[in-house]
Fold:
Amino acid sequence: MSEIQNDKLQFTCLYDRHVALGAKMSPFAGFMMPIQYDSITVEHNAVRQKAGVFDVSHMGEIFISGKDAEKFVNHIFTNEIRGFEPGKVLYGMMCYPDGGVVDDLLVYRESEPDHFLLVVNAANIDKDFAWIKENIEGFDCKAVNASSSWGQVAIQGPDAEKVVTDVLGFPKAAELGFYTFYDDEWKGSRLIISRTGYTGEDGFELYTTNEGTCEIWDILMKAGVQPCGLGCRDTLRFEAGLPLYGDELSDKISPVVAGLGMFCKLDKEEFIGKDALAVQKAEGTEEKLVGIEIEDRAIPRAGYPVETEDGNEVGIVTTGYHSISLDKSICFALVKREYSALGTPLWIRIRKKVFPGKVVKKRFYQTNYKK
Structure:
């Protein structure tokens, strides 16, 4: 049985600090999480222009180790980890045999041989761990769900490197390339520092003990770093074209449908879901996830219908906002494949009215970050 239970509301190690800061709190993925401290716009712009910090301690940490650890992780993971050096991070998915997604996740290859860290979505911790245990039989390795023992903060934005190196005192972090990490320590406990994030900006994610996470948070607050909630985390990831499990990926929405086939290495010898995904890639899928830009300022919300000019419903919105960075109304939508080409005119039905738009690239916002 997993250490994390989803049948009752949980609290991250930073909960009391969020309340003390006056954050608006709400249940999310089984946890009581901060939605915003100031306004979503203020927090969003802080990340785009300077730096902000997120409590992401609700995320799951599952460790795989043993003689067959590499073979097993490669079996359940769509990306290719063979030849993947210690200190590297890979994004990919765990899939069901039919190509539906169990979860999207990050895989960290640790410096210790045959050791991997899988970072999974909070809402899926129990499900993911059960899936891993179900498929690990026959492999000489073990899986440990250590989610409750780890806290995590994400420092994101153009000034993130300066915050981590100067405010927190980790100069080595400046040497990290995108999607790499190294081990350090915080007051005698293990600290993982990775150059990763979920905003489209430069950024770092720091994993350590719950106590250490609280101490790091306090230092950042004292230094005046903007605390950010899940509200702007969603607006930021959406503008950058990043999917959210449950909206743009699910057991019904495969990586191929979502336009994430590049993270599914079909030249691998095998992985769960490979055959189904290979067929989808070769034959095409009935639906595709697209970006749509609306001509009006009306805001498309998840669940709103997508139509042709004559009112024929051809899809549904999965995420939509009036973009803070771009000052445009935009959305992701799952539409019939024949309406997915760039430039295709489509209409969004918002209550009793329809608003014209067109298919555009899903990465709406382009950051200047290069590392």
About this structure: Helices lie at 15-20, 40-49, 69-76, 125-135, 160-167, 210-222, 230-239, 274-283. The chain has a mean pLDDT of 96. The radius of gyration is 21 Å. DSSP finds eight helices and 20 strands in the chain.
